[in-house]
Amino acid sequence: MKIASLKPRLELITPPAVALAAALLVAPANAGPHADDPCIVTARFMREAGEHDALADYNVALANANNGPNAATRDRSAKRAKRDYKEAQEEVKAQFAARKKLCHDLDEIRYNPEINPADFLTSEEVAANPNPLFPLVPGTTYNYRAEDEEGIETIAFEVTHRTRKILGVTCLVVHDAVHLDGSLIEDTDDWFAQDRDGNVWYFGESTAEYEDGLITTTDGAWEAGVMAQGQASLCLRSQRWGKPTARNSTTTKRRMQARCSRSTRPSPSLPGLIPTA
Predict the structure, then answer these.
(1) DSSP letters along 209-259, please?
(2) pLDDT digits over 50-69, tens only?
(3) pLDDT at 8
(4) Which helix (H) or strand (E) is 103 found in, with range?
């Protein structure tokens, strides 16, 4: 009786996307030339996840706005939540388009790279032969500045002398800190490694976001090879832009764009982000 009574509720809360996802996962390998390849299917899953995350963040923001002390504050907070939601939706669309292009450019089937530690350089070898677009030379620093309606945002990167071993690969620790009007809002250790072909790989990060000096979330933290967290990502191959994985926030977009762009020009996809040193 209990199982039967729950069934209608389960059917009500099962979105069509879940049925589609199940169908995509079990699709036969010989489905024909018109079947989507796994890379495109993965991009669609990521788009679904991004859309759900954006909506969840919007609802949380509205809930917080509803508890404002007065009508004017509640109205401002609700408008800001709506603006952020629209921005997040646009970011999801842009990421989906970028992933589709990457599927075409790299001709990937399934992204499950085999990581062989022998294929990667030591920190000393990296310093002697750095990727020109992403030179992982300890002591190197990069500073970026952007200004919008929220204030002046600065992002400071430093390639540290610290290392971390992940999947047997010695990764260099790149520290970055994001400040808004002088107040720390994000503090991160990123883990990168360079292979013998000059490609830079992104192995994860330990991160925390702050508000009023207190940690509000560490949701962005992940490490390659750890269950349910992800694979190492190719950030820069030769002269080609990589595919940063970013959460739905302007700050993270800028930080990820800066992270995968070590050129001396402003970021092409985020004009407000300008290197200052």
Answers:
(1) EEETTEEEE-TT-EETTSTTT---EEEEBTTB-------SSHHHHHHHHHH
(2) 999 999 999 999 999 999 89
(3) 34
(4) helix 71-106
Q: 194, exposed or middle or buried, with CB in 10 Å at 0-12, 13-18, 19+?
A: buried
Q: Tens digit of pLDDT for each residue in 190-233?
A: 999 999 999 999 999 999 999 889 998 888 898 988 854 556 66
3-state secondary structure of 113: coil
Residue 274 has pLDDT above 70, yes or no: no
CA-to-CA dists, residue 155 to 19, 102, 242, angstroms: 42, 27, 20
Tens of pLDDT, residue by residue over 148-199, are 878 999 999 999 999 999 999 999 999 999 999 999 999 999 999 999 999 9
Higher-scoring residue by pLDDT: 77, 32? 77
Residue 257: Cβ-neighbour burial (10 angstroms; 0-12, 13-18, 19+): buried
* C-alpha–C-alpha distance, residues 38 and 103, integer Å: 9
CA distance 172 to 193: 6
Q: Please list the residues that pair with 25 across neighbouring strands.
A: none
Contact predicate 152/180, CB 8 Å:
yes
The DSSP code sequence of 132-177 is TTB---TT-EEEEEEEETTEEEEEEEEEEEEEEEETTEEEEEEEEE
**What's the whole-number mean pLDDT along residues 3-8?**
35
Q: Find the distance separating the first CA and the last CA of the chain, reported in whole Å.
A: 68
Residue range 69-93: mean pLDDT, rounded:
93
